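This week, work through this protein record:
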Amino acid sequence: MKKSLFALSLMMVTLLIGACGGGSGSESGNSGEKSVARQDPSSYDPTRGEGKFDESNITAGPLDKAMAEQGKGISATKCNSCHKMSDERLVGPGWKGVTERRTLHWLMNFITNPDPMIDKDPEVQAQLELCLVRMPNQNMKDDEARSVVEFMRQNDGVQ
């Protein structure tokens, strides 16, 4: 019985490691593990990220408290198992100060489109080396992601 449980546990760990370190397809093999950002850093804008959001469609204004409250609920189900509200790392990095370190449109792009950003952003890749787990795509709608970002802003003291 113990051998079966051990074998099952070993298989699950192997699958998790493979899933966390994989690229976007199996055709890349070991030689294709370098990201686009490492091959050509000039093709990626680290202040914007990769996605449809930029300074023209996401702006910082006064805190929307209702939206932040909604974001608190969303983060409780989709985010808090990996992220703490402090600067302490859990599975992923803590959220304290994230809205001061990143632009709002970068956060929106990362929340709604994490895979290309993980593959291209050098700072995210460095974070991945520390955390060892890729952020999964939570398939958040734009308004859900915006609510989470408002909650992040509230956590960082925006009034």
Notes: Confidence is low (pLDDT under 50) at residues 4-39. The radius of gyration is 17 Å. The chain has one domain: 43-155.
